[in-house]
Write a structure and sequence with these properties.
713 residues, alpha/beta, Quinone Oxidoreductase, Chain A, domain 1, nine-stranded mixed beta sheet
Length: 713
């Protein structure tokens, strides 16, 4: 909330690392791409809130510890948001004990934060512990320490919070400025200070960290829970040999996607107190009345008055507060569809759509919002009917995007899009593991389909899609946009009269991703080979006008990188052409991300990041430079829409989609087995592919007056 209220300059000063990324991208992708990306990020909203309580309305598959109607408390950013309905993973949700009300249970995340801070301090029965900062978390910390038999000192600049701490059990509490006049100050001066000091303040000042050093005894522990400036005074901390520890939110499991979102618990015997078990322990303390939340709730607002609550929190409304509670009606909204404009006329699908194509979009992430939907929006004869995003804040973002782009409605249920008769074509931009099921469902309902790469994540899904496609009679296209780029089209002209094979080199400086990035998740992303290298395989197939028949891949071992982050791939195509893909994350971020080189019959084409191209024919040399990247997104969308309107063939033949996708699976197999593998010989022989109708080539009209194109992956 604080960051969102800052100016653009203020946000830049808060995140200089992101500013450096922007300048690096300016060099490679151009100003247009960077402006679009930054604008999409700045216009996107963040979910407010991370602690809530309510009633279970639905339970997902595989979740056995909860049932509809259970009273639960929840935690987690983007999950336990300030919203009437939330989707919460099971490890961020706990049952509320019978004698705990919603008001107290709604503080479960704050209670877990407080409890984890106490655990990090290793405070023991009878020890002295000082709490600096008596806001909501500080008050909970003080009560938890008191319940554990510790002697609690509390300090805060606000006299009302000091008084509240005394009433709730603190053995001693005073304002910061009065500390030196207190009877406890003499103990600190004689080396008998606090065994631990827990900082729960939120301030850019260095005063709390300095005060903590004065309060702590020799070899004491200082725990940082709140957002305080940690400029440690070395002399003071060194002479006392103090330990400084950071407490990570609710406890073990925090920021671990496997734990939080995938529901994989840590072994009880080895990790006794996970974030979920901390949440449960806190509610037990509340149930036993060892911690009282009620006196901390100074303000209550209904959700309809939420703006007043945020004015109070931001300081715009001049009142003192400790805990602010938002309340909701007990009857939850069941509507999963929000109308934003005029309802679309109901038209049945035909071979050619004529003047208007109704479009539905499933999965509007940042890439779709920044790069894809704006391109589609500008195509004449396209009506944006419905947009679906999954849950929580993504639905709110979908609503904003849908309204801005002109969709008739947005929803959180993909079936609304799949079953809408006004929608002729469905664009799929979800995470990878959902692509196949949505493609099959859309084809089965008679819709044309455009799916972002990859088409699917395993061979079984690929063959199911092949069968569904053969039955449907509809157009299916994958977002292999590079074959539609101006460079690719110019290459086909340069080599159109060739007789022999091509030699192709595709170098990708992919860059490092965080180890826990979703693309590495074996249940969602399925790795970078399937998610990204499919692009480069497809472009080589297009340039050679041939399908891959053999592949071999070699890993480049790096101890600190995923096995698919650095690899060499060799491809052999049916016409004898050869391709080499060097996919590397180990290089410098200052070089171009993608470089393509094509050789054949005395001619060469070279492309750097789809901005600069060189074409050589004998002694002739032609150079083309573009102000921004042109990766073919716009041309691909135009080709897809044109095929829908006029009943034409798919812009990319299905056999090419099948072969490129199958090749990525063979690349992964080759990495494991270490040998060359045939691409089609290992495929299913009982799946009939559609007849070959030629690889796509853009007409001269499509190449003239090339419009602006957005860039992306």
């Amino acid at each position: 909330m604080t960051l969102g209220s800052k100016s653009l300059l203020g946000k830049a000063l808060e995140r200089p690392d992101l500013v450096r990324q922007v300048f690096r991208r300016l060099k490679t992708t151009g100003a247009v791409d960077v402006i679009a990306t930054v604008r999409a990020r700045l216009n996107s909203s963040l979910a407010l809130g991370y602690s809530s309580a309510g009633v279970v309305l639905e339970v997902g598959s595989g979740v056995n510890e909860f049932a509809v109607g259970d009273l639960v408390a929840c935690a987690g950013v983007d999950h336990a948001s300030h919203a009437e309905m939330n989707w919460v993973p099971k490890n961020l949700c706990v049952k509320i004990p019978p004698n705990v009300n919603f008001d107290s249970a709604a503080s479960v995340a704050l209670g877990a934060i407080a409890l984890q801070g106490v655990r990090i301090s290793e405070a023991k029965l009878g020890e002295r512990v000082a709490v600096i900062g008596l806001g909501l978390v500080g008050q909970l910390v003080a009560q938890i320490l008191h319940a554990g038999g510790c002697v609690v000192w509390g300090l805060d600049p606000d006299p009302d919070r000091v008084k509240l701490a005394r009433e709730l059990g603190a053995d001693f509490a005073c304002e910061n400025r009065d500390w030196e006049e207190s009877p406890w100050s003499a103990l600190c001066q004689h080396g008998e200070g606090a065994d631990a000091v827990i900082l729960t303040a939120a301030t850019p000042s260095t005063e709390p960290i300095q005060l903590a050093g004065q309060l702590a005894r020799d070899r004491g522990i200082v725990v940082i829970v709140g957002d305080v400036r940690a400029d440690i005074p070395r002399a003071l901390y060194y002479k006392k040999e103090l330990q400084v520890r950071f407490s990570r939110s609710y406890g073990p499991g925090r920021y671990d996607r496997e734990y939080e979102e995938c529901g994989r618990d840590y072994p009880y015997a080895f990790v006794r107190w996970t974030e979920k078990r901390n949440m449960e322990a806190f509610l037990e303390l509340v149930a036993q009345q060892k911690v009282r939340v009620g006196p901390l709730l100074t303000h209550r607002f209904s959700v309809n008055e939420a703006s007043e609550a945020y004015r109070l929190l931001s300081g715009e409304r001049k009142e003192k507060y400790v805990g602010i509670l938002l309340t909701y009606d007990h009857t939850p909204p069941q509507e999963k569809k929000v109308l934003l404009g005029q309802e679309s006329p109901r038209r049945h699908l035909t071979k050619g759509m004529g003047e208007t194509v109704g479009v539905g979009w499933i999965g509007a992430g940042s890439f779709s919002r920044a790069k894809l939907v704006p391109v589609l929006q500008k195509i004449s004869g396209v009506r944006l009917v419905g947009l679906a995003n999954a849950t929580g804040i993504s639905a709110q973002r979908a609503a904003r995007s849908a309204r801005g782009f002109g969709f008739d409605y947005c929803c959180t249920d993909a079936n609304e899009i799949l079953n809408d008769p006004a929608i002729h074509a469905i664009f799929i931009g979800t995470r990878h593991h959902l692509h196949a099921s949505l493609v099959i469902a859309a084809l089965g309902r008679g819709k044309h389909v455009f799916v972002e790469k990859p088409l699917c994540v395993n061979e079984a899904e690929l063959n199911q899609i092949s069968e569904a496609y053969a039955r449907s009679g509809r157009i299916l296209t994958v977002g292999f946009n590079r074959r539609f780029s101006p460079f690719a089209q110019d290459c086909t002209k340069l080599f159109k009269d060739r007789v022999g094979p091509l030699s192709m080199l595709y170098r990708v400086s992919a860059g490092r991703l965080p180890n826990r990035h979703w693309i590495y998740d074996p249940t969602q992303g399925h790795g970078r080979v399937i998610g990204e290298i499919c692009h480069f395989v497809d472009l080589m197939g297009f340039l050679s006008s041939s399908l891959p028949v053999e592949v071999q891949a070699w890993p480049v071992e790096h101890l600190d990188a995923d096995p698919e982050d650095n690899l060499h791939v060799h491809l052999r195509f049916a016409d004898g052409s050869r391709g080499e893909i060097l996919y590397l994350s180990s290089g410098s971020s200052r070089v171009s991300k993608e470089r393509v080189e094509v050789f054949g019959q005395g001619q060469t084409a070279i492309c750097e990041d789809f901005r600069t191209s060189h074409f050589y024919r004998g002694k002739q040399h032609r150079r083309e430079w573009r102000f921004f990247q042109e990766k073919g997104h716009r041309e691909e969308f135009h080709a897809f829409v044109a095929a829908l309107k006029h009943g034409g063939e798919s812009p990319i033949p299905f056999e090419s989609l099948y072969a490129s996708t199958l090749t990525t699976f063979r690349i992964r197999e080759s990495l494991r087995c270490g040998r060359a593998l045939p691409v089609y010989a290992c495929g299913r022989s009982d799946v009939a592919l559609p007849a070959v109708h030629g690889l796509y080539n853009a007409s001269e009209d499509n190449l003239s007056g090339r419009p602006l194109a957005s860039s992306g992956t």
